[in-house]
Each structure stands twice: as C-alpha cells, then as structure tokens.
Amino acid sequence: MDARTPLIAGNWKMFKTPQEAARDAAALAELVKGVEGVDVMIAPTFACLVPVAQALEGSAVALGAQNMHWETEGAYTGELSGPMLKAAGCSHVIIGHSERRQYFGETDETVNKKIKAALEAGLKAVLCIGETEEERDQEKTLNVLDKQLKDGLKDIFPGSGEDALVVAYEPVWAIGTGKTATDDQAQEAHAFIRKVLAELLGKDLAKSTRILYGGSVKPANIAALMSKPDIDGGLVGGASLDPETFSQIVKFQ
Fold first, then answer.
1. Which residues participate in catalysis according to the annotation?
2. Which CDD domains match (predicted)?
C-alpha cells in the first residue's frame, strides 16, 4: 500500500453563525497546531467561508465548502461556483452528500458535473457515496457503491485529479443516528471502492486516493476505524462542531 496521509474532515452542515464559526475555527487551529502526519479540513456554511478563511490564515487547517454549482457563473439564484469558492479561500468541496441527494435532488449526473467543475477550478473534490439501511438489508450495498462511483466519475480520467479526488463512504443509515458501521463492514466497503477506482482511474491513482469513512465518527471509534488498511480518514458531522472533540479525533494516532 502506498502511504496515504490521513484526512480528517469536519462537515459543519447548517450550524454556526459567521462569528461562531470564526471563533471555533480559530480554536480548532490552535488545538491541532503541531499535529503531524494528518491533514485537517473543515466545511462551514457558505455564509461563514470568508470569516473562517481569515481565522484559519497561517494554520494547517484547510477550508472546504459543502456544495457547489457546476457552472462558473450565471442565472442560478442561491448557488456558488467553483471559482467563487476558490476565491473565498476554499481548497476542498464536498459533493454528493447524502443530505444533498435526499433533500435537494442531487443525482449521480449532477454529482459528475460538479466534480468536473471542482477539478477545473483547482478544488479537491470530496465525493460522498453510500447506501441506505433498506439497501444494506437487501444486500445491495456494493451495487449501490459501484453505480454511484461509476456514474459520479464518468469521463473523469487518470491524471485529471492527481491527489484532487477524495472519496467519502457514508452509509446513510449511520449519519447522525449514532449507529456506526462495524470496522469490518467499513473496511469491506472501502476495499471495494478502491477496487472500482482501480477499474476507473488505474491502479496507481486508486492506491493514492484517500477514502474516508463517515457516519457517527467519534473520538471513541476513530482509532479502530483508522486501523483498517483502506480507511484513510473520516468525514465527521456532529462531532466536528466542538473544537475540543474534533481535535481529539484529529489526534487519533
């Protein structure tokens, strides 16, 4: 296995005012100062991007957005483009989160457009995939992951996203529910994802691509998850909102 630097990413979802977000970002940057061998990213709401970018200036914590549009500009009320996110200080963008798919009509087709646009804008795309509880009960997990990966990465070629693509496996039934996939369930899904990535992008890119686990990640379970060979980090929801708790996850080693 090629050495992949773990990435611990915090998705702040629809929480925190700009003032609260800037305060907590500064606190987190201080708490993880000097931590080596792990990358850290936080994704606040659009309204908080600029103040959080300012709060993180000079720190090793990267800034991400929670969504983007696939066009660079235009009559798309309420949307932000890749170049706008880049100009606001973002290096990453989360694409295809299950909440976007569930509540806002995100499809594999729009995910694909957004990933292409993100890479074009020089952003690292965090592609979210995962099955529902019903799909897992029907033993369709691997079929769902296969389709979401192949459709989401359609016509995205090796070399077009060297170190710019991150995949986050988030079983929908584990997001915000307190349920977590067992370490072995998570590893099985991650190993399968890497196998599909090898088909799509080639073995070298598949080996170097980081695959994160998301779904009720906490300080108590991060070390066990990270001990698995194909789990390269976490996309953390609720536990990322408190700087102290999130810093404990970052310091899992």
1. 97, 170
2. TIM (cd00311)
